[in-house]
Automatic annotation (TrEMBL):
A GO cellular-component term linked to this record: cytoplasm
Organism: Alexandrium monilatum
Signal peptide: none
Domain of life: Eukaryota
PANTHER family, alphabetized: NACHT, LRR AND PYD DOMAINS-CONTAINING PROTEIN 10, NACHT, LRR AND PYD DOMAINS-CONTAINING PROTEIN 12
A Pfam family it matches: LRR_6
Biological classification of the source: Eukaryota, Sar, Alveolata, Dinophyceae, Gonyaulacales
The name this protein goes by in its record: Uncharacterized protein
Length: 227
């Protein structure tokens, strides 16, 4: 694994030699907090063209918006975890994700899009509609502008998708919207965990099939279902 984080002052041209020298055996790459532009991220993705890409790519706190090259990695099936928390993603970015997730070889189980405030209800609806046809199992939308309309789209999609963990805390969901998602999660056998704010209280709901599941859950639990 390789982590180069919180170096926003490095000129864009300085990164280029590093991308060319990245080892093909790399499984985890963390470039969070570097203020990387679309151009810089495209260069990173281009370095993996035609060869093995990392299974995990963390790009928190950068300036990603046009993610076409990232989506090529998703479509290739090599990327298994992508963290784009706190970037500049918008509805066009979500449309690009949806196209990539629909690719036959796509095998991305974990996608974190937290604190991307430019994604509107249209983007959330697009993503929800894609869930039943995607490999996603862990989706993080916490700290976004997710509202009740987007929450309803997610609630409708949950019973028919493979998602087992969903984070939507710190969003614009109302008490009723949060309750609707909780009910949908409880009615969806594949869903094992949901974190949401309901009436000013953070609810960490967890489906437990065995007492050991309780011990393995590190976050404070305020709602547990036994199956």
């Amino acid at each position: 694994s390789l982590a180069i984080v919180d170096c926003p002052g490095i000129p864009a041209d300085t990164w280029s030699p590093l991308w060319r020298d990245l080892p093909s055996s790399l499984t985890e790459l963390d470039l969070s907090g570097n203020g990387l532009s679309d151009h810089a991220v495209n260069a990173v993705c281009g370095a993996f063209r035609g060869r093995h890409c990392p299974e995990s790519l963390m790009l928190q706190r950068n300036r990603c918006k046009d993610i076409e090259r990232l989506c090529v990695l998703i479509e290739g099936g090599g990327l298994h975890a992508l963290d784009l928390t706190d970037n500049l993603l918008n509805d066009k970015s979500i449309a690009q994700f949806c196209t990539a997730l629909a690719a036959p070889a796509a095998a991305l189980p974990s996608l974190k899009l937290a604190r991307n405030h430019r994604v509107t209800v249209s983007g959330h609806r697009q993503l929800a509609e894609q869930l039943p046809c995607s490999p996603l199992r862990h989706l993080a939308l916490d700290g976004t502008a997710l509202c009740d309309e987007g929450g309803e789209a997610l609630a409708t999609a949950l019973p028919g998708c493979a998602l087992d963990q969903l984070h939507v805390e710190g969003t614009q969901l109302s008490h009723a919207g949060a309750r609707r998602l909780l009910q949908a999660a409880q009615a969806s056998p594949s869903v094992y965990g949901l974190c949401v704010d309901e009436g000013g209280q953070r609810v960490n709901w967890r489906r437990c099939r065995d007492p050991a599941d309780v011990l393995s859950f590190t976050a404070p639990m305020s709602y547990v279902d036994w199956c």
